[in-house]
Amino acid sequence: MITRKIAFVFLFLNFLNLSYSQKYNAIDSIVSKYPNFADTEKLAERIQKDFTTEYDKARTIYSWITLNIEYDAKKFFNPSVPKSFISKDPTEIDREIKKYIDNEIKKTFRSKKGVCEDFSRLYEQIGTLSGLNVKVINGDAKIDFNDIGRKRLYSRHAWNVVEIDGKWILIDVTWGEGYLDYKTKTTVKEFTPVYFDTDPKYFYALHFPESEYKNLKDKEVYLNGPLIYNQTIERDCEILMPKSGIVTANIGDEILFKIKNLSEFDDLYCFDDDGQEIEMFDVREKNNVLEFEILCQKKRNQFVTLYRHYKAIASFKIISKQ
């Protein structure tokens, strides 16, 4: 009887996941057929005509921006001089700032290009016009190996929070559009749905808001945490061990890994930052948690990355004591 109940729960959850997936696909399909709009007002009118719930509207805006706006690599690598506003009247400064932001949003909408600040502001404006409560959040983001164990926070990224039925959800529409190839300095456009309504435990592993910069405890956990990737979020691969993204070990020490929801052993690999494969031994699965060890083999500090089907899951920094 218990087995049947458990089986029913799994089937029910799978049905819900499939239903949500089908619903998202339906929304994305509708949005992909949208014509060109003269301005954000016209787009918002169409969204309100086609969708009624706050959640569907929020998802629609995410889909529209990720499908239609491209990350501006040229603007990122060649940023303009920051705009300054000078006036003895604070109200006048506020007006000038609003005017400047509105013009930047119009540029992004018309050119179909922008950087994270442009993406998040555009999302905010379309969301507000569609009747949603949307905010732009500025803060730090982790994007590569060198961010593991970094000492400082940088305000170099922007994202959104949206209130849905009284609850705030997390959205990074910039990362949903694709990613930046730093070697070629070009944008790789790749629709990525996982940054819409992302689970906070994964979102805040990669984002840290300015409002929390004085929170030293959470700041340390964030900066010292592992670097996770899209597949981690897609598969809900919660990293239980190591507890930190920084592992201190002697040569020959065994380093234990435990990852939830990663029970398949096939096509699982570990590589260091030199591209050399690292042997994973004593691999076993226990209660839907994959466990294995690797050896600390080098005298210098190194980064190791776990892959499944050659898609990255998580990276760690191993600090050698010798």
UniProtKB/TrEMBL annotation:
Please state every residue range assigned to the domain named Transglutaminase-like: 108-175
Look up and give the organism this protein is from: Flavobacterium nitrogenifigens
Give one Pfam family.
Transglut_core
List the GO cellular component terms: cytoplasm
What is the name attached to this protein's record?
A: Transglutaminase-like domain-containing protein
Specify the superkingdom.
Answer: Bacteria
- InterPro entries, per database record: CAP/Cytokinesis_protein, Papain-like_cys_pep_sf, Transglutaminase-like
